[in-house]
Amino acid sequence: MSARPALAVALAALASSALLAAGASAAPGSTPIRGTVWVANEGGDSLTAIDAATSRTVVTLTGIPGPHNVQVSENGRSVWAVSGGSSVVAAVDARTYRLRGFVPTGAHPAHVILTPNGRTAYVSNSEDDTVTAIDTARLRTIATIPVGEYPHGLRPSPDGRWVYVANIDGGTVSVISTRTNRQVTEIPVGKKPVQVAFAPGGRFVYVSLNGEDAVAKIDARSRRVVAKTPVGTGPVQLYVTPNGRTLVVANQGTEDKPSTTLSLVRLATFRRIADVETGKGAHGVVVDAAGARAYVTNIYGGDVAVVDLSARRVVARIRVGEEPNGVSFSTRPPAKPRAGELRLPLPTHSGGEGH
Question: pLDDT value at position 340?
C-alpha cells in the first residue's frame, strides 16, 4: 500500500456521519458521553477522530500507510498508530493533531498499546514474531522481544507488570514482563487467538479464538485456560466493561461470509447472553469509560456502530474511512482542529527513528 505524501487534517461535513436519529445526543436522564473515539482506517491510510458526545466526525488525519491499530494514552494527550505500509509506529499529539515522531518497528506491525503509566509502548510485529518496546518520552526502541508465532493483539495488565500477546499462528498467548522486557511464558489457548482483554482487577484474561468461534478465559495466577465459551462467527477484538460484568466481542467472520454481530458475555457465568447486530464485518471494539456505549468498527462496511449496552441496540452509525480496524477511547474531548493541512512525511518502508 503506497504512502500519501502528507498528513492532511480535514474537517468532515456533518452529513458524513450518517447518524441515526437516536445517536445525536444522550438519552433523557442518562449521563452524557464525553470523550473522543479514535479509529484506524487501514484501507484508507487514515485516522478518524469522533466526538463521543455527538457521534460526529471531528477530524480525519490522512497519509499514514495502512494503520491497522490505534491507541490513545491514559491521559488522552497522545495517539499512537502502527503503519503497516511503513513498518513504523507514529505518535500524534491529540491536542494539536501534530506529529510527535515515529519509531521503526519489525515487519508487519499489528497492534500498539501503552502501559498504564504511559512510559512504554509495545508493538506486535506479526511477520517477525517479536514485540518492540519503546520509550514514549524519548521515542526510542528499548527492546525487541521474541514471542510466539504471528503475534497480533496485545494488552497490559491493570497493574502494568505484564503484557499479554495473542499469537495467531502459534495458538498461544505470550506473557511479557515489563520489568525485564522478556517473555516469561507462553500459554496454549486454542485455534487462532487474535486479541486479549483483562478484567479490571487483573485476575482473569480473556482471549478471542477466531478459529473456534469462542472466547477462552485465562487465570492470570496459574496462567492456564480455565474455561471456554462460544460466541459469534470469527471473533476478533474484545473488551471488558469498566464494571467487570460484561465481555463484548466483535465477530468479523470472513470477507466472503461476513459476520455482523457483537456478542455480550456475562462474566459471572461466562455465558453469552445476547448478540447485537452492528454491521458488516465487526472487527474492533472499545467501551467508553462509563460503560454505557460500545464502539464497533465494521471493516467491510466502512463505518462505526455505536451500541447502547443497556438497550442492546445500535443508536448511531458513523461513516469513517475504508476498512476501519482498531479503535480506542479517550475521556478527553476532541480538540478543535485548525483549518488547513499538517504534513507528515512518513516513510513508505522502515527507516531511521525521527521526531
Answer: 36
